[in-house]
Amino acid sequence: MPKRRLMTPGPTQVPEQALLSLARQITHHRTDEFRSLVAEVLDGLKYVFQTENDVVVLASSGTGAMEAAVVNVVPRGGKALVLESGKFAERWRKIGEAFGVEVIRYEVPWGERFEAAEVARLLHLHADVVAVYATLSETSTGVGHDIEAIGRVVAPTKSLLVVDGISSVGAMECRTDTWGIDLLVVGGQKGLMSPPGLAFLAVSPAAWRQIESIDRQAFYFDLVAYRKALAAPDTPYTPAIPLIAALAESLRLFRLEGIDRIWERTRGLARATRAGLSAMGLNLTSAFPADSLTAAYVPDGTDGKRLLDRLEARFGVKLAGGQGPLKGKIFRIAHMGMIDELDILSALAALELVLVELGHPVALGCGVAAASRVLAERADVAHQQKTVCGATGAAFQENVF
Amino acid sequence: MPKRRLMTPGPTQVPEQALLSLARQITHHRTDEFRSLVAEVLDGLKYVFQTENDVVVLASSGTGAMEAAVVNVVPRGGKALVLESGKFAERWRKIGEAFGVEVIRYEVPWGERFEAAEVARLLHLHADVVAVYATLSETSTGVGHDIEAIGRVVAPTKSLLVVDGISSVGAMECRTDTWGIDLLVVGGQKGLMSPPGLAFLAVSPAAWRQIESIDRQAFYFDLVAYRKALAAPDTPYTPAIPLIAALAESLRLFRLEGIDRIWERTRGLARATRAGLSAMGLNLTSAFPADSLTAAYVPDGTDGKRLLDRLEARFGVKLAGGQGPLKGKIFRIAHMGMIDELDILSALAALELVLVELGHPVALGCGVAAASRVLAERADVAHQQKTVCGATGAAFQENVF
Questions:
Q1: A313 in reach of chain B (CB within 8 A)
Q2: Out of 3.90.1150.10, 1.10.3470.10, 3.40.640.10, 3.40.720.10, which CATH number does the structure's domain A258-394 have?
Q3: Closest Cα partner for B275 from B171, B375, B356?
Q4: Which of A190, A237, A317, A339 to mutate to test the interface with B (most CBs of B within 10 A)?
Q5: pTM of the model as a whole
Q6: Is residue A394 scored above 60 in pLDDT?
Q7: Widest CA span in chain B
Q8: How far apart are the CA of B243 and the nearest CA of chain A, in angstroms?
């Protein structure tokens, strides 16, 4: 039996502490004990999201929280601007259409990035747009969008900025308050290193004003009920109790390492991965890659499905393939959460070996070497060692440095 | 530290096998391995629900599945008949109102039961009712409704029968197909002995025809997407992977004991509990009690909150209080899932001791004795021992009997 090495851009590996907490017997949720756990989780989420806005916790997948960010904000017949460039950005439009929202589309080809100037132009043209729907990292293409720039052009308008950060918040830089994100949507099973089944929304005061002013097509996802429950803090319906306990464990690790350092570490892993893949002669899918995952084309003449199957069967390395029009054409590798330097080097080594096995010429070791060179230059490595030392005792500190 | 003895009517205790499965590292869901786990879970759910209808799995609390059973069935402006008698039945109406459904109410006082004849009369009066919304066990009052009788009067009409079985399916008798339930809504964290975070719907062919014919106010809960995914079988959005693995473990226990025997055992525990409480001089909240939980009034002059607090602090016995107008006035004790004969006797003994501690006169041991007398007569006990013998080896069988 090969070891399992989950390296898909969600779900991601969950830390041991969090897994073990899942094995505890269920306790009741209408208790002071559970309410203080929820309070801790909300504090932790605010820290990771870099926000002072309210955060609500839903028992649903990320798509449920996306729906909440539509039906609570834009009434039937209201107007939304959707920035569309990939399978997940598409979902914003489809949700809007399902609830009678008039969707203005700003579409760019898959793999491309949105221009803030075009967003500004469209908002000028459609001054009655209630909200702009954007994506931080488009997992289907591996693109990282410049939300900071988009935030700057949305801020002076009356529109709210809603961002799907499901697949990367906790790994890729996201400054909710500084960038002016009114509604941030996040999933538990990606950068937050938790099991799937929880989703989150950070809601700004301006977003609350809009939410409370409209006729919401919602019951389970009616955010006003969740806002009321924050007084406890609590949830209006039975929460996914063990998943919240696991999330609390994962969030403690964020405080321990520090969110800025995590962003920097993720950036370093992304650079190393890209360098490795490029050295192997593979083409990346985008010139604007996200920090949380890297997507690359399967080389011509190689069967994409076989590549992934062999990686898993021979090495236990589980990567993701492409979706929609990219099915069979690309593979995607995550570098977020628990995934560390040696995981990336191992995955690159596995890729080299499987490509050679499948008859594609690769100089063995070239990808690993290129990635290692990037890792050798990482500015944050010294800090990381220091943290480890701090944890095991100051006495060792001198020896390590 | 007192032991924890969770005896609330949801969440309920989860079997050890299921808890341990939660502690396994996350695996990806778009794999043959996960699809065969989903197939096993769907088979197990069909067995427990006693249905050959499709079953879909949602990542949400039970309320999410209730919403799905409304927005997929009754279009905006369509008519629904809601049988209302308690906090959870009320929720059917509130969901309908949130989505512009015209709700006809058949209301009976909390603690009372619906008359099938009145349902028939109302359906005759409102022939355009798309669906009747009923509740199997109303957890807020402890009432068990006669769904079989209601099914008989709905069957000859054009209306669909939708039943909230969230709080008791898996413990209390529910014959989905025989009783003509078109949409059965179930939650994971009650009779199914699983962690909260999953909900289920069993959907009849007639319900599918209605669902596919209307303009559904739904995206995350759009059941057509879930129906398509059943071909794999799969889910349209990321499932709560570990919760599904845990559910698979719990469902295996249902096959092992047999659903008829579980219903009978639950009925026996309910009878014993009621006998025990009555012998202690306590009044039950309803003449139509559910099998899955028993609700009784806190005796006059006793503080309901203190009663529950002391039960938990002194004995670790966690019961539920009342909701809405019954807050502080009743307590509710579950006898479903993992809860067995000795748990019930222990809880009754604890209640006796705490009532005495709080100054309410109870003859110590009278509740336990009355409940024990019921348990001594249980017809299914011999069968249960036989099963245990069968599991450990036929050689022991003769010695035990």
A1: no
A2: 3.90.1150.10
A3: B375
A4: A237
A5: 0.93
A6: no
A7: 66
A8: 8
